[in-house]
What does this fold into?
Amino acid sequence: MKILLADDEKPLLNFLERGLRAEGFECLTVNELHEVLPFTRKHHPQIIVLDRLFGNEDSLSIVNALKSLPSPPMILMLTALDEVNERVKGLQEGADDYLCKPFDFDELLARITALRRRLEKPKQSNDKNLIIGSLQIALDERVARLEGNEIPLTKIEFELLLYLAENQKKVLSRERILSRVWQTHSDPNTNIVDVYISRLRKRLDEDPAIVIETLRGNGYRLGLKDQV
It folds into this structure.
């Protein structure tokens, strides 16, 4: 697997390159933000480990362009900006994972391995839609419809609905939801999951047969009213 390492801290860049090469990855490196997009177009890395800040330049400015490529890479963003709102902003802009500096190399390796599994997950021919009663989620279009009408969803709302639908009838803990949807393994000490669950319930209230059940102390479960 080919990984592009992009960071303006050359000692860190060299350390990451040595460490990941030792783990069997093919590594390319750049230390200027303006090099990232042309390098990606030329070499087609599957994963980019991307520093958030290059001096005064914010790499979020190129994430959309990277994700618009014909074969978009997975993006693991590194940053010293560890506030929850900064992590959420990075994920909303299209980053696939977020790791705060300073970090442990083993954690970086684990996150890269997780991204690789997502890339290598086989696509099923019947994977085009998820259907729960009148709710239909079109995976290719990344659109959800209720009784045939498109539901207006933000990116995070769609990811949350998709995760619940993929695990319909299963109880998903708040921690699992944070890890999957917000790509964070730490508790932000907010009710952000509850807020987004409430938003989804309002989006789905046209069909009372579809419910998102709260199991106090355990988590949330999506399903049909007579089946959960």
Summary: The first helix runs from residue 10 to 22.
